[in-house]
Batch of 4 targets.
Target 1
Amino acid sequence: MGNVLDYADRFKAGTMPRHILDDAVPDKLEGDRTGGGGTDVAQSFQRGDEAELGAHLAAELGPKGDVVCAENRVWLFNGASWAMLDDEDLTRRALTYAGQRVRIAKPGAPDTFRRIRLSSTAAKGVVQICKVHLHDPNFFAEAPAGAAFANCFARIDGKSVAVEPLTRAHRVKREHAAPFNLPTNAGRPESVDRLLAQAWAGCDDLDERVRYFWEWLGAAICGIATRYKDTPLLVGPKDTGKSQILHAISVCFPADSRKSVPLQAMSNEYQRAHLSDGRINRVNELPARELLDGEAPKAILSGDPVVCRRPCEKPFEWTPRCAHVFAANELPPSRDAALLDRFVLLACANAVPREQQDRALPDKIAAEAPQIVAAAVSALTDLLLRGHLVRPQSAHAAASDWKLNGDAVATWALECLEVSDKSTPAMELYEHFDEWRERNGHTRMNTTNFGRRLGALGLGHLHSNGKRWRVLIRPHARRAGSAAWSGGQRASE
């Protein structure tokens, strides 16, 4: 890894050797006499415009195959992985062309020269032309699936994992390479096994949960978790092991590849750009209020291409390989059933008293990171042979309850309405629902959508002096609404 950093540092300092591609070599002149009579062996350009300088910069960065532009960034290879050069580095390099010579040919007379004038804006234009010459948008998207370590690359090979030397062909970003060796014949780490057994003690499907954890973690480490469209969601009160499980997952990934982008922020193209450099996205809490419908979060959790953009830069397309894991004390409601289907609920109900908590556990887990990774990669073989993750039985039941609670109208109707031969005006029902949904943290809904959701529940209606539904509001629900209006949230408005 030191070679990569050295290569990038030499580039920033302007001392990198120049490797000039044949099709972009400006003339080099010898014999340009200086005032002192010496010979100045100097670089000169034919035009000195952004197009020529951009082609020259692309050629200077390195020999063909050692430099590429992907995800709107320029990357350099040196022996192990690909290191990123940000636009500021490239702009500084482009500005070194200011003051260099442009040849002016005059028929029948000796050539003369002028000096290049280059503003910061023009230098940025040179960088953009350089990127055009190096453009390969699918370079990392088409990289082999697997994980890089200090001693090898674990590559997904059909239904098995092949361990081989790390090469240029693996297209590994520097920040995605683990700094430790991948152990061989390593057993399950005691700290994690004990943690999972404690967090899920008493669960009828403990073995299923543990197997799911290890197989999913292996897929996440090797960058294929999005294939299975499964995102673990740890649910439970404080001190039930959720944070420690997140920590055990995080230590398996290089520090620079760990992100924490909340679900609701994934609709922001700048946040997606930040996430594009990650291999694991771990978020300690979901929002307490209703999850809004969003195509971007669903696409990212499923590995579908999305458009990202960094501030002041052009958009680029990203095919997500980043795995995600979330934790929550309580489940927020959502009307988006497709979004809820992406999550696998793993309840953590066993609170550990403070006097029994192991304060050294995070350090023990971090020390066992290589063994955790080895155990997860080993478990991945079963997943590859089977072709799909097996969700624990408890996760199916929890998901059904979550979907019911996520449908605000259905939950309200189940709690507050009773079918009757009598009827209630549509507006009266809507006003009662609006009070209920505010007390329970649901997003506001207009009357049109409310009517559609009632209709989807199969409730009968009639038109008599306005629309009426063949239901009555239960007496206890009316009393609860009145109490909230007079002495609760409404009274404070």
Target 2
Amino acid sequence: MRLSEVMARSDALRLNTVGEEQKARWVWELEGQLGEMAGVSPRACPWPEEDPVLLLTGAYEEVYQLYLAAKIDYYNQEMGLYANDMAAYNALLGEARAWWRRKHRPRRGGNWKVG
């Protein structure tokens, strides 16, 4: 998923007056946190010169949309919507973290003795 797709999908969920530059900063803030979790070096946000591909894809890409919707709701002082968005975001982020740990756990040595 690309950064522009996240912003477009979030705009479809929430009518807002937040500029694209601010939305890109919020998404990139989350991207930095996810990158730290994955051991990826932080990148400078290339928006608007480039439309970068984000780290999470597939089943967990909705994490970005939920995070951005929550940020919009928070700054619009829609606390009920914010709480719901954050609950959904935290649940999906927990699933994404668990998936990543399962997928990237180090190989363990067995009880085999070579020699």
Target 3
Amino acid sequence: MTGLPVIDVSGLRASDPAARAAVAAQLGAACRGVGFFYITGHGIADALLDSVFAAAHQFFALPEQVKLRQSIKLSPHNRGYVALGAERLDETAPPDHKEAFNIGLDLAAEDPDVVAGKPFRGVNLWPSLPGWRDTVLAYFDACWALGRTIHRGFARDLGVAEDFFDDKLDAPLATLRLLHYPAPADVTEVPSLGVPGLGVPSLGAPSAGAPGAGAHTDYGNLTILAVGGVAGLQVRRRDGVWLDAPQVPGALVCNIGDCLMRWTNDVYVSTPHRVIRPAAERFSVAFFLDPNPDACVAVLPAVLQAGATAKYPPITGAAYLQSRLAATYDHLRDAPG
């Protein structure tokens, strides 16, 4: 129906090596092929999924001036609220017709990395909504655990130790994004709050021709996406054909990003995708699993064919993420790191 494989990943938790190997082979085939796949057997409870979507509805229903109190422009660490028109994932298209809220690894203000001002090591920004923080952090942790399990399958398929990625994802540059694509009639003027630069999105208000999310590849290692009932995601096949990726009951959508593609010397290939402008209001929740900031992202020797050379020099997780985000957000172009 979709052209995207459906993989039951529960076997990755099995004690039987053959069961883990079978799932790893399916993941590897998907990552070498279309780069997208649905997963079942993921272990995230329906109640938790329902709760995080309820949290998204609750936040995005707030008045714009309230949401802007947690503006991403107040954080140099990619946390907080992203207003309509503040992001352009496809530089050839108008600004995206969406708003978002980013949550990172939850660090205390006294954490040494926060105190030192290390890139992407800041505190989260939280709206004043009872129970909201606990809900989204519970979902963050569930996706983080799932992502590390899936990486054990990647490692087995790529010919390295199953635990190869464990110490590179134990303090990751992960981001949980709550996403809201308003129906076209719902767009309103964004107030300024009297704070320069906060009221008017840097890229301007969404135009009539704006995509929901412009065509792009993801930056990190792995994306885990939950969709709230309204379709819109499209995936570009290797021959250039755009495939619809409708919601599959009980399944999450996964895709690999450019960082894992780099680690595998393009053995795994990240895939352009987009969200078309929805006719109805749309919600989704995406978890982006990027490596630890000090993780060395270097081509795995195991993936190099005889006589082949690495296409990419080593880079740290933080330096790679900074380079990618700077191309998306105006306010990060001159950020440290």
Target 4
Amino acid sequence: MTDCIFCKIANGEFNTEFIYEDDNVVVFKDINPVAPVHLLAVPKKHIESLNGLNDKELITDLFFAVKQACKKLNIKEFRTVINTGKSVGQEVFHLHIHIISGRPLNWPPG
């Protein structure tokens, strides 16, 4: 998708520092962090939301990328969030996993 900001980031069109990168996924810092650590794990392939993800290998790659980024930054406690749909907070319609850490996080969220 040509106008998708996450596609552009994942394809290297911006000078974004990747915390982790492999053939299918990139992890980078969120530009609007909600905590001291707020990363995004994003597939390089455009997929609008979790509802459109049917590739078991890519599911594994996404969660492996989360683990590797946390390991690299020595993050042992974190929350992962996947918003699927506008009414629950998805703002960029390209599948991504939020990795949030660095402060106490209450439950339930919202």
